Amino acid sequence: MSLTVRSPSGQEEVGRQEKAIYAAFGSPKVGDDLDNAGFREMIPDDHRLLVEDNTSDPARILAGLLWFDGAMSMPGGARVPVSMLSGVGVMPGDQGRGALRLMMTEYLRRARDVGAAASVLMASSMKLYGRYGYGVSTQCADWEIASSASELVAQAPLSGSIETIHERDDAVGRQLDAVWERAADARAGSLRRAPRWWRGVLATKETWLGGGEQLLALHRDETGDVDGYVLYKVKTDDSGGHHVSTITIVELVGVDAAAELALFAHIATFPWTRRITWAYAPLDPPALSWLADPRALERRANYDFLWLRLLDLPEMARQRTFGAAGRVRLDVRDEVFPDLGGRWDLVAEGGRG
Asked: How far apart (Å, rounded) are the C-alpha atoms in residues 275 and 245?
């Protein structure tokens, strides 16, 4: 079989590429949800790859992937350019024929050529991406608590004010982005979001970027500056003869623990609420340290979040901070980039690498 990897040419091929990716994940749906989220507008054609089988006429597309340009926060708050890989799929029945390796190798070469220090993704398969040099770099958790048990200790550092926001325009997106970027200084592995990404987060229609029937509250510090936000959804159940609600936290982000605690406390005060759930949450949310009964906040799941593949080892070492001085020798093997292989000395002095 003769396989070719290249970028799609025109919207007709983009559509065929997306159908192949969706089919790889067992779904025939493609189109409106991507368009409404502004998804396609964020990805130029040269940020897509497809693999076609040239033995048929016309050539058949059997695999595809796409990526975003971005930046990732490092320990210490610096940002490094990264390539954000998404939508990697091979059509059912065509797996195991070399399409994935061909496509991933070309993608990694392109990402490195434009100066990305690393490639990041969320892995659908634990076994798949290790063969291309990826490894787990961040983790997250699912939390759940009964609202009746969400009382904080009296010494909890609560201050500022809460404001419910009904608008979903670009100005609101800029406010949230400012909080997100400030919070990223202390949260290594945070990825920069483009304005169009925020439109998806705040869209009226739900997609994998976010959106849907969700509520928004801002936290303002004592000077009036926005320093935190929470996006959440409320699901009401009247089946048992009582009006009860479950609140699902979609995103809760603050520039410090005080802002996050205030937003958590705000969520817990709604009438009829019986349970609060929070997915893709930090492993150590501030509430865990300030609840009157920390055991009441139950960790339902713990899983990997961001996977990372180094493309520029020296740059990644230079841009992060280190907690202690020392020297470590790294023995690197890289099947895609032989020049990155060999022995590297990582030296940390004065907090820098």
From this structure: 7
Phi, psi (deg, nearest 5) at residue 30: -160, 145
Task: Detail the DSSP E strand segments found in the chain.
Answer: 3-6, 48-53, 60-73, 79-90, 118-121, 135-136, 139-146, 161-165, 215-220, 226-237, 244-254, 273-281, 298-304, 307-310, 326-332, 342-348
Distances (CA, A) of 62 to 4, 101, 103, 278, 349: 10, 13, 11, 37, 49
Query: How many residues comprise the chain?
Result: 353
For residue 33, give the 3-state DSSP assignment.
helix
Q: How far apart are CA 89 and CA 99, in angstroms?
A: 10
Residue 177: which region, alpha, beta or left (left: phi > 0; alpha: psi -120 to 50)?
Answer: alpha
CA-CA distance, 37 to 56, in Å (whole number)? 34
Contact (Cβ atoms closer than 8 angstroms) between residue 211 and residue 205: yes
Average pLDDT over residues 52-62: 87
Report the alpha-carbon distance of residue 16 to residue 61 in Å, rounded: 7
286-311 core/surface letters (b: 16 or more CB in 10 A; e: else)? bbeebbeeeebbeeeeeeebbbbbbb
Tokens of 307: 């996977």
pLDDT digits (tens, 9 = 90+) for 219-271: 999 999 999 999 999 988 776 666 788 999 999 999 999 999 999 999 988 88
- CA atoms of 185 and 118, how far apart (whole Å): 18
